[in-house]
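Could you please consider the sequence and fold following this short note?
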Amino acid sequence: MIKKIVASFCLLLSVMTYAQEGSSSPYSFYGIGDVRFKGTTEARSMGGIAVEQDSIHINLENPASFANLKLTSFTVGGTYNTTTMKTDAASEKARRTTLDYMALGLPLGKFGVGFGIIPYSSVGYKIRNIYGDDLEKTATLTSTGGVNKVFLGLGYKITPKFNIGVDVNYNFGVISIVNLETNNNIQSGTRETNTSNLSGVNFNIGSMYQTKISKKLSVFSSVNYSLSNDLKSKNTRLIETATVPETIDQPDRTISFGSKISLSAGIGQARKWLVGGKLVFQEATDLSNNYNESPNVTYGRAGSASIGGYYIPDYGSYSNYLKRIVYRGGFKYERTGLIIRSEAIDNVGFTMGVGLPISGTFSNMNIGFEIGKKGTLSSGLVQENYANISIGLSLNDKWFEKRKFN
């Protein structure tokens, strides 16, 4: 069954990845857009905590986790987002439905392999400005595109308590920003289209460790380090008026990402409860490109802090389904690294969710809820109040079993 589901999603992937508009945030104008990937649905429901060595859920943030898999695991997730964008003078609402990730994990003895695709960031907004003495001029700024990530990871279990892993990511995408200006007194307007084709490779290395400190209690830890890397941006500019369109080649740019380290730790009782925390630190980046450079915009160090956990009333209950549900919750604070008019663009959110077992299998459906705030009203900027509903499937089965009978 899982093989048919995987094949079906693969057929739909190319359409969904490129057709979706993953962001409506005006802040997605800067850099590579609004970074959307925050982990799987089950991890996001706990504020981003994914520290336990899980055998049936894929951890997409630490490649060492692949060595824990006991069954072939397929995971896919998507989000419905609604955002209210506010300034001191106005308020607008936007809605988006997006595919967040799709991955497959294979257990290979002490090794584990994971691969998949993640729509990593999105650019998407439309801003219209009407001005002039008689309001005869209109300027419309529209953007589309983003960056996708294809990854391949390998984990190895050195001891029953300690794993290491590495993954390689190929990042690619196209970002297009169109500026259309019209005048009621002129028949034809002017359209300027800036296009950036992005590509690059980066590497992550990780480790996970767990040990018992009593008969029931265990402690967990996770470290993931992303090496500094670059994205190559090939830029072009097309200017169209009533005359012949003119294509102007723009200088290619290098978008640089600083190294990033993620540290997680937790304590709990396996298949019962877990409480954990996570800290992320990233060096300053240089995300400026030909279309989004501004003297009022800089990029600083980024990072986040989060806490979260889960509780299962009775994992082995056969008579009461509600006792087998996983209840999750968490809190996160994120500094995006984007600074506009000396104001840091921060993100604060509360999360919760449930994991619903699929009877008769090791598979489950995960539902997550998140409410939060991004940005600020200070200095004439935009504050985004958002609510997300995420749904993820974690499907598990045995593959490559040797037949006992022909």
